[in-house]
């Protein structure tokens, strides 16, 4: 079992003719992902890695019955690509693009709230159900099929923790890189909710980092809504204060939250063990199984 | 990107927000000329990107030429929280009865813009937010519609702004929101907005920070970028386009992805070492970028040992390995021991390419960090 994606997921790649889109479409297909179309304005009629390209996402969905998209569109055009994807009522949109202006994402987020679509990202590595499908740039070879769910705000940290799990023979149901931007679609809570409802996910690893209050909110959700055990890692214990958080942003959040200490404390209070190293997270997960 | 006060004031004034008369000066004589032209009293304000300039001695009021000369002499050339002051703004001092705070930013938790108004302006607003949060009225904005006038009025009334200026303050708040939106700002802020005896409002300070990711559509703002680093390494990092923070330790850290680099810092600390820096080479780094990263870390005299932690996704291990080889082969002798840990995309290819006469290779993150900490101890001894 899995959440969000499996081998039935029919994927359209937005931006498939660009450098990254092209390279990673091929990687996704090699991994076994059911990539059914590409969508690039003005490039309709071409074929990339044996996949037909359409001018619009609407046409790709209509002709190929796609139900998910993965977006490799450059930042200046990414918000428009996301609006287009949301306009077609796909089940899942994964936005890999890094550097989308924040105010663009605020508008996308506003539109998203009116839909039933899951948006993962932006600025994220994507989603993978090992052995079935990957939507994004995650290196497929480090993952293994199994019964641990993983959700992370950081791409490379996702790989690190997965590696620690896989090395000791612990596979994953699905790994979701939700991205670390100020505005993202799927949150920790959304992902935890999916894992909690998934019968095969027996434990969840959660990777957070300093800034924002998402981990604190997730801790509250875990304490009140989850039976599935969760272990966590929080990056940034040694990060110097004041280097990352903006001035007015700190006013809104109030101070004292957003630090590694406050996140670790909130998680511990919710019964979630937090590893000092990624290896320790794997120890806790192993203990749950 | 941060605008200096004088730059932000220019943008605000053009949009119709009242600001005091002011002139930029780079020398004491220019400052004195400005004072003579505008009349006294004036405020002399350091133009550097630090908060709390007043408390740190970067702002002074001068009531005559002698005082102005003295203030300008002291402030020009001073080091303010690590920044060199090479310009001051000389500005007509405003007689005020009240000081207000107005701000617009993104509420990250809600994913929405928020406007904020307080009648307790002119002070450290972060402190107010902590000790007396009710003193700040907040109104969330639907980004699809922008700030409605009624919302601006509501915030202004809730903040207890003096009634005779409530209309003027609402108008400034609406303009401040429009500027936030039109310029892709991460924040626009006036602290304080002064209320004068005559019932007028004047922006005595101006803050505007712009989303770096949106600068491509604001070339006029991008041109205003002026960084005044006193740290040579941070200046270099800006040129190379790295996310870099210099720290006080001696273990140099290079990695890809903020989360993984932070984790590497945490582990250096965990294993008893002290990180010298945070350096994220970002996604998809090519060989030249890797070489630049090594150049940066070797340039830091505090660094006794270096650890490379790369987990390839979009970044490819063979590219990184080639970059490390290229950079290190230029030295007759490697200045500091370098430990490399490569995993993920094309890591195997990278391991084969890596010149192990130049670097030490470790398979796991934990081993790599421990080795680097140990190297630092040996070199530091």
Automatic annotation (TrEMBL), chain A:
Keywords annotated in UniProt: Ligase, Nucleotide-binding, Tricarboxylic acid cycle
One cellular-component annotation, GO: succinate-CoA ligase complex (ADP-forming)
Alphabetical list of SMART domains matching this protein: CoA_binding
GO biological process: tricarboxylic acid cycle
Oligomeric form and interacting partners: Heterotetramer of two alpha and two beta subunits.
Listed GO MF terms: acetate-CoA ligase (ADP-forming) activity; nucleotide binding; succinate-CoA ligase (ADP-forming) activity; succinate-CoA ligase (GDP-forming) activity
HAMAP family registered for this protein in UniProt: Succ_CoA_alpha
Catalytic activity: GTP + succinate + CoA = succinyl-CoA + GDP + phosphate; succinate + ATP + CoA = succinyl-CoA + ADP + phosphate; acetate + ATP + CoA = acetyl-CoA + ADP + phosphate
Name of the protein described by the UniProt record: Succinate--CoA ligase [ADP-forming] subunit alpha
Associated pathway: Carbohydrate metabolism; tricarboxylic acid cycle; succinate from succinyl-CoA (ligase route): step 1/1
Gene name linked to the record: sucD
Active site feature: 247 (tele-phosphohistidine intermediate)
Chain sites annotated for binding substrate: 159
Stretches assigned to the CoA-binding domain: 4-100
Family of this protein: Belongs to the succinate/malate CoA ligase alpha subunit family.
Top-level taxon of the source organism: Archaea
Residues engaged in binding CoA: 17-20, 43, 96-98
Function statement: Succinyl-CoA synthetase functions in the citric acid cycle (TCA), coupling the hydrolysis of succinyl-CoA to the synthesis of either ATP or GTP and thus represents the only step of substrate-level phosphorylation in the TCA. The alpha subunit of the enzyme binds the substrates coenzyme A and phosphate, while succinate binding and nucleotide specificity is provided by the beta subunit.
Classification via SUPFAM superfamilies: NAD(P)-binding Rossmann-fold domains, Succinyl-CoA synthetase domains
TrEMBL record, chain B:
GO CC annotation: succinate-CoA ligase complex
Catalytic reaction(s) noted: succinate + ATP + CoA = succinyl-CoA + ADP + phosphate; GTP + succinate + CoA = succinyl-CoA + GDP + phosphate
Residues that, per the record, bind Mg(2+): 191, 205
Cofactor note: Binds 1 Mg(2+) ion per subunit.
Occurrences of domain ATP-grasp (ranges): 9-253
InterPro entries from the UniProt entry: ATP-grasp (IPR011761), ATP-grasp_succ-CoA_synth-type (IPR013650), ATP_grasp_subdomain_1 (IPR013815), Succ-CoA_synthase_bsu_CS (IPR017866), SUCC_ACL_C (IPR005811), Succ_CoA_ligase-like_bsu (IPR005809), Succinyl-CoA_synth-like (IPR016102)
Subunit structure: Heterotetramer of two alpha and two beta subunits.
Name the record gives this protein: Succinate--CoA ligase [ADP-forming] subunit beta
